[in-house]
Design brief:
The protein is α+β, with helices and mostly antiparallel strands. Helices cover 53% and strands 7% of the residues. The two termini are 23 Å apart.
Length: 202
């Protein structure tokens, strides 16, 4: 397998999952500062975005939830996805919330604000993103109440919350206590340490 990633991007969560699984893989860094159509990645994934996973048969899988789900289901011995239907639904619920709301509606706005035309527009976009991300983090903190991991047992949902949590300090977004504790537990996992080391983030 081969993972296309950018250091500290959402692909970090997939990088962690590959380390958790323990199967051989390559990792190729993508420079997201290069315009999307001009990235070498575009020849592999026309979306030209990370994470992109090239599987053993040469087929390409894109989008965080799809890659995380496939990795978990094809490596059931790692127990990264529950066996029971309700547990599966809850993991997917949390995963989608982190990716589609916290990331795409919250943090993505804060990243995008830097490209705004005026300081006033920049602040307006950033404030909206910060509000969405803060509320999403609070909701995940409530989900974690009394638990070490999002669904009780460690799962693919934890990797999504993890990568979002690593972005919070860059925007002066305070992590609620339960989420801060979750981030600390994630950083203590050997797979996370290995992924951070490989991306130059340790």
């Amino acid at each position: 397998m081969k993972l296309y990633y950018s250091p500290g991007a959402c692909s970090l969560g997939i990088h962690v999952l590959l380390e958790e699984i323990g199967r051989p893989y390559e990792a190729e860094r993508v420079d997201l500062k290069v315009p999307a159509p001009e990235r070498p990645l575009a020849s592999v994934n026309p979306k030209s975005k990370v994470p992109t996973l090239v599987r053993e048969d040469g087929s390409v899988l894109t989008e965080y939830p799809a890659i995380a789900y496939w990795l978990a289901r094809t490596n059931p011995e790692r127990r990264l996805f529950p066996d029971d239907l309700d547990g599966q639904a809850r993991v997917l619920e949390a995963l989608d919330y982190c990716v589609a709301t916290m990331h795409m509606q919250g943090f993505s706005r804060m990243f995008a604000a830097r490209r705004a035309a005026t300081p006033a527009e920049q602040e307006s976009i950033a404030a909206m993103g910060r509000d969405i991300a803060t509320r999403a983090l609070s909701r995940m903190a409530a989900t974690l109440d009394g638990k070490e991991w999002v669904n009780g047992d460690y799962s693919i949902a934890d990797t999504a919350l993890f990568y979002c949590s690593t972005w919070a300090p860059h925007f002066n977004v305070e992590l609620p206590g339960n989420v801060a504790g979750h981030l600390a537990r994630m950083k203590a996992r050997p797979a996370v340490q290995a992924a951070l080391q490989q991306e130059g983030l340790a």
